[in-house]
Amino acid sequence: QVRLVESGGGSVQAGGSLGLACELSGNAGKIYRMGWWRQLPGKDREFVASLSWRNDNTLYSEAVQDRFTISRDADKNTLYLQMNSLKPEDTAVYYCHARILTTDYWGQGTQITVSS
Q1: Distance CA 79, CA 35 (A)
Q2: Which H, E and C letters describe the chain, residue by residue?
Q3: Is 84 exposed, middle or buried (0-12, 13-18, 19+ CB in 10 A)?
Q4: d(CA 77, CA 98)
Q5: CB 105 within 8 Å of CB 37
Q6: Contact, 86 vs 114, CB < 8 A?
Q7: Each residue of 52-89: pLDDT tens digit?
């Protein structure tokens, strides 16, 4: 059974930094892509960043481009998100996502709160 376990959420003041980690266990096949999504209060889940497990190609949303960095440790099946220059509008529940073969998997979510 595939599991995604996030860690590293918390609270920070605007302009600060936080890091998230997501460990994948019980891998049932080839990882295609992993990434981060977030859900702001009262809104739909939105894309943040993703990374190709095959060639490290990365994608970012415009909202986080140049502030967030996605990376991985392939040996540990762990995905990271380094978040710098955080803004109050980054406050959300952040979810780890993995596409393995043709199936999508999600973590339980971790809260990030940025105060002004």
Answers
A1: 8
A2: CCEEEEECCEEEECCCCEEEEEEEECCCCCEEEEEEEEECCCCCEEEEEEEECCCCCEEECCCCCCCEEEEEEHHHCEEEEEECCCCHHHCEEEEEEEEECCEEEECCCEEEEEEC
A3: middle
A4: 11
A5: no
A6: yes
A7: 998 999 999 999 999 999 999 988 999 999 999 999 99
Give the separation between CA 11 and CA 33, rounded to whole angstroms.
28
Residue at token pair 């105060």: 115
pLDDT beyond 90 at 9: no
Site of tokens 């809104």: 43
Closest to 38 measured CA to CA, from 2, 68, 77, 3: 68
pLDDT over threshold 70, residue 28:
no
d(CA 60, CA 77): 20
